[in-house]
Design a protein that fits this description.
The chain is an alpha+beta fold. The chain has two domains: 460 residues, no CATH class; 140 residues, Galactose-binding domain-like (Jelly Rolls). It is 44% helix and 15% strand. Strands 6, 7, 8, 9, 11, 14, 15 and 17 form an eight-stranded antiparallel β-sheet that branches. The radius of gyration is 29 Å and the shape is elongated. The N and C termini lie far apart (63 Å).
Length: 641
């Protein structure tokens, strides 16, 4: 099992999954052509000359590659590339033939790559050419024209790029972290400098420096008058509404307040790209952390880290038609209150994971939206199909998954990185990031198979649950994502120990009786409908779940000091629109209490008057089906004088 400690130990050897830089340049080509002034044209010429000079130096420094081995490798890759995936309506025999031929062709390409990798191991292990290779990679990714467009704006802008090219350590960290989104290196340096100016802690080595850099790289400043997007191949989730500096400061404060996942401190800058990159507000991020701590604290401590935090989607965001109601609050408060189709559920899952500092990204497939997220055992899918069926913008799921595995091998992955840089310096085409392993020049092709080799050599086996998910068709996975079921979640309901102190009924001096929710005489432990939970701030609470096949009664026995009328009020926590709880007193009288919409915080219901007799009384609570989830801390009985 990969540990957080192992992750941080690998930080400076990790290559961002998306450092196939020219592919980003092709995405940039869809944007308006940079408009250059006279000074800008001179800068473009300067950057182009620098790139040409590096290309010549690198070409001269390359070792001789065995011609026969190279030819065999390129032939095998060409044979693989010639295989065309069948269409859905093609005969079954065509599909079977393709499925049989593809793994054989992939294995042949990998077998022919290995002798070349062995020959070039010494060269690719050396950092002698790194300074030139890194500058070439940035020049190629940002393009001379794109960098000149930024630098021509002011001396300060040009100074930011000069500073970047003079700082080899920073260049290496940036390129390992995926490069600047859309090739916007100047804009990324602007954001990074602004964050460092705003935060002393970001200027020190550690998680906050990595968070600052990841934030700057993933969502540089957007100049909407000139460019419509900087998504690039590391897909961004639109513009951060509160701004990048404010978003960084939000997470810095949450980190210092210990509100984030314990593993947050170990993430590298590439992983941090997928934390702060969110289209929702800082206010919503604060709210969802508070809501989950109070409403469903069990989701925060879920030992199944694939579903830690994101299980709230299955338990409390019903799959239904998507609608909006601004009276219910912020967009994500509306999402959990109203439910929605796959997109809204996936967005909420990604949002809540990121709110607690867990890297997450979108995952789309035909007719369905899902998400990918980090776990200590690697990246996994929530709410959707296996990696072969999903993509994130232009980036295919299988390519992302391969890189996420290969990045765990520091020394060898530096060889991958250098091979890619060489391809950048020489201006070679990248291997396709959408069509797994297809196309690309010699050096980037070699880098791809270096990743394949290291993952296969490590004998990384799929977990049983992953293998089960991989066996599902895209349609089967879509249906599973839209349901409330968890694949392989057939475990029995777990019992919990309830301390006697937490069940103690308290009578105040004025006669008010406070009955803890967990003091019920039935059920006495967890059921499919009722969950006994440890409260985040101490004590316990009951959660009456949305899921579960049949309603249950919560039964209580209360000793009243005197006959009379009492005001009954429940201390509850809800995330959905108002609905009723039914209270039955001594098996005779019944009252309906309206549960308030509390947006995930504790609040008392409006009191309703009931009659109790002196001595023993029974109170039963239940909810009309279909119900939404509600957490109950306690209820009070106050004698009416």
């Amino acid at each position: 099992m990969k540990t957080p400690y192992y992750s941080i130990r690998l930080l400076f050897g990790l290559l961002a999954v998306l450092t196939t830089l020219p592919a980003t340049s092709s995405a940039r080509g869809k944007e308006p052509v940079p408009v250059l002034t006279g000074q800008g044209q001179a800068l473009e010429k300067l950057y182009s000359e620098q790139l040409d000079a590096i290309q010549k130096e690198i070409s001269a420094a390359l070792p001789t590659v065995d011609a026969q081995k190279k030819a065999a490798f390129e032939t095998a890759r060409a044979e693989l590339g010639a295989l065309k995936a069948p269409r859905e309506d093609d005969p079954e025999a065509v599909h079977r033939a393709y499925q049989a031929a593809k793994p054989l062709a992939e294995a042949k390409a990998l077998d022919n790559a290995r002798p070349l990798l062995a020959d070039l191991e010494s060269f690719l292990s050396s950092d002698k050419l790194d300074s030139k290779l890194m500058k070439a990679a940035i020049l190629r990714h940002g393009t001379p024209a794109g960098l000149a467009e930024f630098a021509q704006e002011s001396d300060a802008h040009k100074a930011l790029l000069d500073k970047l090219f003079a700082d080899e350590a920073l260049m290496k960290q940036i390129l390992k972290s995926g490069g600047a989104n859309g090739g916007e290196y100047g804009e990324a340096m602007q954001v990074y400098s602004a964050i460092l100016e705003a935060s002393e802690l970001a200027r020190k080595p550690g998680i906050l420096q990595r968070l600052a850099l990841g934030t700057a790289l993933h969502q540089p400043w957007l100049d909407e008058d000139k460019k419509g997007s900087v998504n690039g191949i590391v897909f961004a989730d639109h513009k951060t509404p509160d701004g990048q500096v404010a978003r960084y400061i939000h997470y810095e404060k949450a980190c210092l307040a210990k509100e984030l996942d314990p593993q947050f401190k170990d993430f590298n800058a590439w992983e941090c790209r997928f934390i702060t990159n969110d289209p929702y507000t800082n206010e919503e991020l604060t709210w969802v952390r508070s809501m989950l701590r109070q409403f469903r604290p069990d989701h925060i401590t879920n030992p199944d880290q694939k579903w830690r935090y994101t299980r709230i989607v299955k338990s409390d965001v019903p799959y239904c038609s998507t609608r909006n109601d601004e009276s219910l609050g912020l967009p994500q408060q509306q999402a959990i209150a109203l439910g929605g189709v796959c997109g809204r559920r996936a967005f909420f899952g990604r949002f809540v994971a990121r709110a607690f500092g867990i890297p997450s990204r979108r995952s789309a497939s035909t007719g369905h939206a899902a998400m990918n997220r980090w776990t200590p055992d690697g990246w996994v899918n929530n709410f959707g199909a296996w990696w072969s069926h999903n993509h994130c913008g232009p980036h295919g799921g299988l390519d992302f998954y391969l890189d996420s595995q290969a990045r765990e091998h520091e020394e060898i992955y530096m060889q991958v990185l250098r091979a890619q840089w060489i391809g950048n310096a020489l201006g070679q085409e990248d291997v396709s990031i959408r069509h797994y392993g297809q196309g690309g020049g010699f050096w980037d092709g070699l880098a791809f198979y270096q990743k394949r080799d290291v993952v296969e050599a490590a004998n990384l086996e799929q977990a049983a649950a992953d293998a089960e998910l991989a066996a599902l068709s895209a349609e089967e996975a879509r249906l599973l994502g839209e349901s409330d079921e968890i694949l392989g979640d057939g475990a029995e309901v777990e019992e919990i120990e309830i301390p006697e102190e937490d069940k103690k009924i308290v009578v105040a001096e004025d006669g008010t009786i406070t009955v803890p929710a967990v003091a019920c005489t039935g059920p006495r432990n967890n059921t499919e409908k009722v969950a006994f939970l440890n409260s985040w701030d101490g004590g316990m609470q009951i959660h009456y779940q949305r899921l579960g096949e049949r309603p249950e009664l919560l039964k209580y026995t209360v000793e009243a000091p005197a006959d009379g009328k009492y005001e009954l009020a429940l201390n509850v926590n809800t995330v959905s629109e108002k609905y009723e709880v039914i209270a039955r007193i001594n098996r005779r009288a019944m009252v309906n209490l309206m549960l308030p919409y509390t947006k995930g915080s504790w609040q008392h219901t409006e009191p309703d008057v009931i009659e109790l007799k002196e001595g023993r009384n029974t109170i039963q609570l239940t909810f009309r089906a279909p119900n939404r989830g509600v957490s109950i801390k306690d209820f009070q009985l106050k004698l009416v004088k």
